[in-house]
Amino acid sequence: MAHTAALNTLKALLATISDLRAAKSVLSWDQQTYMPTGGIGTRANQMGTLSRLVHERSTSAELRSLLDQLDGQLDPETDDGALVRIARRDLEHATKLSADLVERMSHTTAMVDAVWVQARLTGDWPLFAPHLRAIVELQREIAEQYGYTTHPFDALINVDEPGTTKAQIEQMYAELKVGTLPLMKAIGQQQGEDRTRPLHGRFDEARQEQFGMEVIKRFGFDWHRGRQDRAVHPFCTNFSMNDVRLTTRFDPTWLAPAMFGTMHEAGHGMYEQGVAQHFTRSPLAAGCSMGLHESQSRLWENLVGRSRPFWEYFYAPLQNLFPEQLQAVDLDTFYRAINSVQPSFIRVEADELTYNLHTLLRFEVELGLLEGTLAVEDVPAVWNAKVAEYLGITPPNDTLGALQDVHWSAGLFAYFPTYTIGNVLAVQFFDAAVAASPAIPEQIRQGEFGTLHGWLNENIYQHGRKYDPNDLVLRASGRPMETAPYINYLKTKYGQLYKL
Amino acid sequence: MAHTAALNTLKALLATISDLRAAKSVLSWDQQTYMPTGGIGTRANQMGTLSRLVHERSTSAELRSLLDQLDGQLDPETDDGALVRIARRDLEHATKLSADLVERMSHTTAMVDAVWVQARLTGDWPLFAPHLRAIVELQREIAEQYGYTTHPFDALINVDEPGTTKAQIEQMYAELKVGTLPLMKAIGQQQGEDRTRPLHGRFDEARQEQFGMEVIKRFGFDWHRGRQDRAVHPFCTNFSMNDVRLTTRFDPTWLAPAMFGTMHEAGHGMYEQGVAQHFTRSPLAAGCSMGLHESQSRLWENLVGRSRPFWEYFYAPLQNLFPEQLQAVDLDTFYRAINSVQPSFIRVEADELTYNLHTLLRFEVELGLLEGTLAVEDVPAVWNAKVAEYLGITPPNDTLGALQDVHWSAGLFAYFPTYTIGNVLAVQFFDAAVAASPAIPEQIRQGEFGTLHGWLNENIYQHGRKYDPNDLVLRASGRPMETAPYINYLKTKYGQLYKL
C-alpha cells in the first residue's frame, strides 16, 4: 500500500495548486468586474506572485517523484487513475518548454499587446507585422519543444485539444466548406431587407438582465452556486464547481448581444457546475478541452436559444417585457431576426452560418505563417482575399480585417479551430440527447430543460477532465466527432429560414 | 555591503507575504460581498491554503536568518530600519505561540462561533459558558507564551496596541469615568422626548448611497483607488493603498446607520489610501494599530460628521434628497437628533457619550476572567450590574447583554479598549490639526476638508506602521495620549446640546 501514501500526498499537493489557481481566478474576476482602476499595479504583482507559486508547485521535483511512484499502480479506468494521468500530462505540459522560452514568450506578448491595441486602432499592419513575426518564430520554437511528428500545428493544437491533429482540423473544414458554402451563396443571392431590425431600438438594461437571468435559471444554471456580474469583455470563470461566475454586457440599443451572451456564458457555467463534487480541488475539476467547453456554450446559445421551439415558449414573456418594441413583431419575424445570415467582417459578430469561415481563414493563415509559406507582410492581402472568397465582401481596412482579434498578440495560436469544434460538437451532442430522449424538443417548447440538462450532466459535465476529448465525444454520442449532423442542422434550419 | 543583498532578499520575501495576504483579503472581501452561498466550502479551503502559505513564510527560518543578518545594520530612523524592526516584531509575534496552541485556538473558535450564534439567538448563557471557559483558558496560555511582567492582559493588548499596558487602559477609563459620568447623569435626568425621530421614516436607499458617496468624496476618499459595496456586517479592507474597499449596509427606515457608517469606514479607508506609496508590498503598508485606525474612523464619523459646522454645509443637500422627510426639520433639531444621548443595551448602537462605558464594562469583565476572580457562570450578573451602574438600565436578557458581541467567541480578548483609545485619540488629533490650522472648522462649514485631510495625511496616514503607536501619537500631536481633550470635547458639545 505504499502507493496510498503517495496518492494522498499527491492529492494534497494538487489541492494546494488548485486553491492557488482558484485564488488567482478570484483576483482576475475582481479585476475585470469591480477593481478600481488605481489597483492595477499592485494587482499585477499579486497575480504574478500567485502565478509563480502555482508554477513552482506544478513543475516541482516532488510532484514528478510522486507521479513516478504511482506510475502503473492504478487502474486507468478509475478516478484516481485518471487523476494521475491528467496530472502527468499537466506536468509534462508545464515542464516541456524551457524556462528561457517561457520567459521570452511572456515578455514578448506583454509588449506586443499594447502595440496591437495601437495598430488595431489605426489599422496599421506594418506597425504590428514585426511583432507578429517574433511571435510566429516563438510559436515555432514552442512547437519544436513540445514535439510533433508531422506538423508544428499538431504540437500547438494539442495543448487545448489533446489528441487532435492538423489533419483532422483540415478534414473538418473541408467538409464544412463543401456542406455550407453553397447554402451561404444561395442565401447571399436573396439579400435585401435587414432582417435584424426588430432587435434594434431601446431595450431597458434591467429588463434585459431580468429576462436573461430567468432563462438560464430555467436552463438549469444554479444561482445558489453562481452569480452574474457585468464586464466589458464578458467571460465565465469559476473558483470551484460550487462558485461559478458569469459576466455579461448590456447594449441598451441592441437586444441580441446580452441575451445570447448570457445563454452562451451560462452554457460554460453549467458545465463547470456539473463537474462531479468529488473532483473538487483536483485537476479533474474543469472542462475537458476548449472545444468541448465551447460545444456547451454553443449548444445552449444556438441549438436551444436560437431555436423556434424555445421562442414558442419565451417570446410572449419577452414581448411582455418590451411591449413597445416587440408587440407588433410576430414570432416568425423575430425568429428570422435572431437567425439572420449576413456576411460581416467581424468574427465575434458573425451569425451561426458564416462564423466558421472566419475561423477557417485564420487557421489557413496560421498554417502559412508556421510553415513559412506566408510572410507576415502579406497577411492582410491573403486575409482580404479569403474574406472575399468565402464571404463575398472585402474589408475596407485592417482594423476590420487581420487586426481584429487579440489572439495572436496574446500568443494564442491554434486556438480559432476550437470554436468551430464547439459548433460541430454542439449539434452532435444535442442530436445524441434527442435520440436518447425524443421528447426534448417538445419540452423546450414548454420551457422545460431538465431532460436535456440531465443528459448533458450525465454524459459530459460530471466527468470533468476524466476522459480525453475524443474519448468523451465517443462515450457521449456513440461516434467520433463528425460534421454531418452539424451540416445537416444548418441546411435544415437555414433552408427553412430562407425557403431554399 | 553584504547587508544590501540580505535587505533585498528580505524585501522580496516580505513582498510575497504581502501579496498572499492581499489575495486572502480579496477572497474574504468577495465572500462577504458577492460570493454565492454554495461557494462557502471551497472558499474555506482556499483561505486555509493561503493562510498556510502566509504562515510558512512568516515563520520561516529564512526570514529569521535574514533579520539576524540585518540586526543592527540599519539606521533605525530610516524606512529600511523601520522595516526590519516591524518585520522582526511580526516574526516574534508569529512564532512565540506554539503550533499546538495556535491549532487548539483555531479549532476552538471555529467550533464556538456556531454555539455563540445559537446562544445569542436564544439568550442561553449556560450553553455558551463552558465554551467561554475554554477560550479564557486558552487566552491565559497565550498570555503566558507571549510573556508579560505584570499582568496577562499586558501580553494580549500588546498584539493590537504595541507598547500599551493594562495600567494605561485603567488610567484612561478612570479619567473617563470621572470626566463623563456626571455629564451622563445630568443628561439622563432630562430624558423625555425621543430626539432621534427625524432620522426614522422612509429613506430611499439609492439616495442614501448617493449622499454618502458624495460626502466621503469631499472628505478626500479617492474613488479612483477605492470603491464601496454592500455587506451584512460593514467593514473596510484593502489590497494595497491603491485598492481600498469600503462596505456599507442600508436601512431604508433609518437614516443614521449607513450615513455615519459610510463616514466611519471611509475614515479607515483614507488612512489606508494615505500610506506612502513606497511602502507598497511591505509590512509597513498598514495602519499603525487598532486604536490608531479607530481614531481615524471616529474622527471623520464624529468630530466631522456629527459636528454642527459639517451640517451647516451638508444639511441643505440632505434635505434636497429627502424633502418629504426633512423639509420641516430645522438644522438644530436634526443636529440634536444625530447627537442624541440615550443609554442603550447594544454597544454598536451606542451614542458618542455612552459608548465608552460599554467597552469599559467588557474590559472589567475580561480582567476578572483572566485573573480568575470572575467565573464564566457569573458574567451575566456582573454584566447587568455594571450596565445598571453605568447606564441606569438593566438588560432584559443576555441577548441584549453579555451575549451581544462576537469578539470573545472569535478569541478577541483585550480588543474592546482599542475602540475607546480611538475615541480619545480622534479628539487629540483633531485638536492638533486645528491648532496647526485654525481655519479648519470654518473650512468644514464650507464643505472643504483638504486642510484637515492634508494634516492627517502628513502626520499619520503616510507613515503606515513605521512608528510605534505611542511614538506616532507624540509626533503627530506633540503629547502622549491623554483624555483631557476628549473629555473637554464631550463636555462642551453635550453641555451645549443639553443646555447644562
Report on this structure:
The structure is a homodimer of 500-residue chains. Chain A is mostly helical. The first copy, chain A, has two domains: 2-96; 122-500, Neurolysin, domain 3, CATH 1.10.1370. Chain A is 65% helix and 3% strand. Chain A contains 21 helices and three strands. The first copy, chain A, has helices spanning 2-33, 40-58, 61-70, 79-96, 99-122, 125-146, 152-160, 166-190, 205-219, 256-274, 290-304, 308-321, 323-326, 331-338, 355-371, 379-391, 416-436, 440-445, 450-459, 469-477, 484-497, and strands at 226-230, 236-240, 243-248. Chain A has a three-stranded mixed beta sheet with strand order 1-3-2, sandwiched between helices. In chain A, a hairpin with a 2-residue loop joins strand 2 and strand 3 (243-248). Chain A is globular. Chain A binds chain B through residues 15-16, 19-20, 22-24, 26-27, 30, 34-39, 41-43, 45-46, 48-50, 53, 222-227, 229, 239-240, 242-243, 280-281, and chain B through 15-16, 19-20, 22-24, 26-27, 30, 34-39, 41-43, 45-46, 48-50, 53, 222-227, 229, 239-240, 242-243, 280-281.
What's the structural blueprint in terms of helices and strands?
The structure is a homodimer of 500-residue chains.
Chain A: H1 2-33, H2 40-58, H3 61-70, H4 79-96, H5 99-122, H6 125-146, H7 152-160, H8 166-190, H9 205-219, E1 226-230, E2 236-240, E3 243-248, H10 256-274, H11 290-304, H12 308-321, H13 323-326, H14 331-338, H15 355-371, H16 379-391, H17 416-436, H18 440-445, H19 450-459, H20 469-477, H21 484-497
Parallel strand pairs in A: 1-3
Antiparallel strand pairs in A: 2-3
